[in-house]
Records
---
Amino acid sequence: MKNVTTPAKLSTGLFLFLTIIFCSNPFSVAEEILNPVSVRTHITPDTFTLGDIATYTITVQHDPDIHPVAPDIEAPKGLEFIEQGESTPRVLNEQTIHEYWFKFRIDDTGELIIPSIPVTFNAPDQKGKNIQGTIQTPKVSLEVQSLLSIPGSPEGIHDIKPLQEYPLPWLDYFWMALAVLAFSGLLYFLWCKWKSRPFSLNLPAPVPALTPEQLAFKELETLKNKDWLQIGRTQEHFFELSEIFRRYLENRYQFPAREWTTEEITAHFKHFPSLSDNLKLQVRSILTHTDRVKFAKAEQTKDEMPSIINFIHDAQPPEAINQP
């Protein structure tokens, strides 16, 4: 009897154990299948030192009809944001996996914490209408080692000391400002003294303006000293002689004689009351003769310089005669 009943007891116990295992596995599998969206995080590499680049990844696994939104994260204290991106989605066990990665530069030592952040998603409800849901990521911490704590580090390396505040040297600024004011005052005093100094202008006495007659006689004397007629420069002599005479007429009678033709000057003097008929004929004769030699290169018969001198003497008004 003992040999028969012992196997029966063992078979009954084994049956109960297998039944428990079989019943528990479907529930755990069903629990995983019923989870429509899940999130997990990880950070690489495993160890960190100051200045390393840490890659923080958020993995969202969801049903095909759920659409997550890329999360936005602010750089926690001790981390400097560099860039972010998203990997190409992939399918696992009839669910879609999205991975969002963020890269940070480590700027501090010790324990740094990336807090839990919300990840939003759109999912259809029982009526097929999209609703927005949120799932929180787990908090992640990383330990940043100081370079001094790493085995084999040089003993001469020390952590960067914090900035020290030094008071402003107000006393130095005061003396500098006082020196600038004193120097400016000295410059102003010297400038005022120089400006108020007595000085005399040793300017030459103004040359009195020449009368038309005086200017003409001076120019005629200069032309005479050139002696151009004696060396055969007849045309140049008469050009300058005509210019001197026309300049005299222009200065004395106030009309543009150097720009007018001989005919225009003669017509102008026809109705000129201050000149006698004899002087008007002299003007016409002098201009006509000089024009012939100047432009037509006529043969010289006489020099018109004495005629011009006589005309100036005869035509000058009484007030011009009395001038020194």
---
Amino acid sequence: MNVKAIDNWSSGNYRYLIASVAAVRLVLESYVAQWQNQRFSDEQAPIQAAIDAASALLPTPSALQQLCREFKLSDFERDLLLLCVGMELDPSFADLCARSGGGEELGFPTFNLAMSAFAAPHWDAISPHRPLRYWQLIEVGGGKTITQSPLRINERILHYLMGVDCLDEAFKGIIEPVYYSGELVRSHDSITTQIAAILSNKWGNIRQLPITDYPLPIVQLCGDEVGAKLAIASTACEISGMKLAAISARVIPTVTAELNNLILLWQREARLSRCALLLDCDEWEREDGAKENAIAQLMESITTGLIITTRDRRPAPKRPLITFDVHPPTKQEQLEIWQNALGEIAPSLNGQVEVLVDQFNLNAPTIYAVCSEALGRIAGESKDDNSPLPLGSSAPLPQLWDICRAQSRPRLDDLAQRIDPAATWDDLVLPEAPRQTLREIAAHVRQRTKVYQQWGFASKGGRGLGISALFAGSSGTGKTMSAEVLAGELQLDLYRIDLSSVVSKYIGETEKNLRRVFDAAEGGATILLFDEADAIFGKRSDVKDSHDRYANMEVSYLLQRMESYQGLAILTTNLKDSLDTAFLRRIRFVVKYAFPDAKDRAEIWRRIFPKNTPTEKLDFVKLARLNVAGGNIRNIALNAAFMAADAGEPVQMKHLLEAARTEYVKLERTLTDAEVKGWV
């Protein structure tokens, strides 16, 4: 309805309700007069004329008419309901109820009064199985008998009859209305259209399902695109002329009585306001059996429009279920969203938007948030130096790139350790072969979209388009530093995940933990560094018992996610020989980190001190006699720097000697005279 029609309906609805209440008051006045043996002029014509005049104003039936039709109220039940409405709207009703024979102590509607005063009474109207009480349209107060107990209209029903559009107060903190106007991409349009047809009860043409007692199937939206799923559900409801409200799986009550009452009240609400319910299971991990049972009961009991959002498919209940997988926007759709969000700046970026699309896999809300923040920064910088908004060249790209990285962090920050890259290629002391492999890895990450998409290698098949690497070598040989160098080179975030803390003894938990990490990282194509791969890998391909079988499943899941991951995933291990060759074949790059020889150790010592660190008479050849890896060298240098700073001196060999002794104690090794001969 347009605004004028809505105004006409509101006015006509109120007048219709007041006239209907007046008709009930007339019946009561006639009954009171008869009870008191008084003459009464029963002039119904003016009231009927008022009802007819109000009906003429209504473009659609009044709320009272719709409620009676929806809940199949008899004329007597309708009059009983209006008796309770009159008590709320007309001050004279209390006196009429009292004068009807009950006295002042019964100055309220009762079932006994309705049975006596109204036409065509029937006893079962007050039965718990009839609409008035089953749907809680009226409430029965405490009293000596059912027939003499006070009757009161339910507050939500009163608001509904008055034309007030609001959710039941009983839903506060549990079910909330959804107001969402997110933009849909083309690939989501068809899903939206099909859901709208389902909600409009035209789903028979979409998919053949068994005929059941349920008028509508459940709609299930699966995937990690939370915002897109909400936009699809909201838009589908709008198309089908319905509203949408949402409930989180976390707040569904598990107490049977509470759950049953919630389901009943929602069924009532859905009929009153043509509202579908969105059951949000996106963050629910299915760990609570009682909660799972409550969710299943809700799914099977609600017969009105029900949409479920979940990351993984839920098992089908008794009610028919139609599932749609909601995928992220395609690269082309992302490009169009970027161009629209950037506005006039987009054409001036000379193809740099495509670089962002190639690297980051962002949905529409995130892209708009990134552009809004970036344009705000650029406008602020331009205002500060009185220069116009920078167009052309590459001015806006650093802001956009950094904000894209920041937007991808929140979910991952709770699951892994972010490492700020500090090392550069100059800090990395490695033979040429592993350095060249690292350069190839960087090239693969940079040119992934060009080779796979533009040059067509993606169509040639293979296990996946992800880039995976194994860094193998003893502790301190440069594995983590290499990951830092790659992150700095590619200007990407680096997150470290300790696989030993991810692995769980409970079946399925390891995969669940890994899924959280990959799902959270996918949007930003972050570099993932899985440390201690020995915790999950090993020579496990020979299945001897159920534990081996599940261990292999964990490894297979990790490799499958690495192969499909849009970014770079790195495994580190101290024991490459312990890894099964069948698993190694699925990893694209293997970088071996040898223990540094004396020449390499001397070079590491030369590079270990920052340029601002004061040093004095350091002999790197003598320092290289220490038979330790690069990580230990860094620890010794750092400890020595603190000693020198505390003594107010530059770093000298004596400080390094003391620091070396401390490090060797930690390594549970003996510092030999040959290693430190001639140091001081």
---
Amino acid sequence: MAETISSLFWKLGIPCVFHLLTGAYCPGCGGTRAAKALLTGHILTSLRYNPMVCYAAAVFLGFGLWKLWARFRGRPAPSVYRLNPFLYGGAALALVNWIFKNYMLLVKGVDLLA
């Protein structure tokens, strides 16, 4: 039952309540489509929908490989606090993406998620 429901959400997409109420995008708008595009190998499409998905995947993959390399060499694993600069970078990316997409939608009339 749960698999059927999750499959239905995956195919139809989850509507954004913020977008439905305001007509503007939220910072996470396009995230589901971006994840689906990334998982199917369409990296540029994923970046167009929401670059945070690719950014987060790259950061977590890189950190995981770094930890694995440290363990392989017999060194202590790096602390998760080493990710703080990447978290700030991700927050800045989300803010810039949110402003740009809403500018294009509300001022220029171009829907980048269509």
